[in-house]
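haha ok so turns out i had the wrong file open the whole time. this is the CORRECT one, sorry everyone. sequence first:
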Amino acid sequence: MALSDALAKLAAQAKHLEASVESLKNKQHTRAQHRAEQLRTEIDQTNANLQAKLDGAADEVESEWNRLQDQFSADLDAMRAKVKAHSAKRDADRAANDAYWAEVEAEDAVDYAIYALQEAEYAILAAADAQDAADAASAGVPTD
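then structure:
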């Protein structure tokens, strides 16, 4: 085989190789495009699934937050009711204590009034005795 024939064969083989490489490139490009489309579909599906989970989690968080707010409001209302009941009991106890001491003061005032009446009666009787003694002394009647 002559050198020129070998070079021609080599050139033909190189052309064939270039065509094969180009064919592979085109096939790989087509496969790569196809795979990219598959990945985009999978990514979109995964994104949709994640968004659905996030939406579900957001709903769950909102529901739990609402439950906590309701529980807090109920607890706060219960505490306010306890405070109000305690305040009412304290006011009732204070009123009962005030009534007790008012009654004690009234009894003391009645006792003082009785004492004053007794003193007045004693003074009246003493005055009457003194008047009797004065009348007797003016009449010349001896007194004991």
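The chain has a mean pLDDT of 88.
again sry for the mixup
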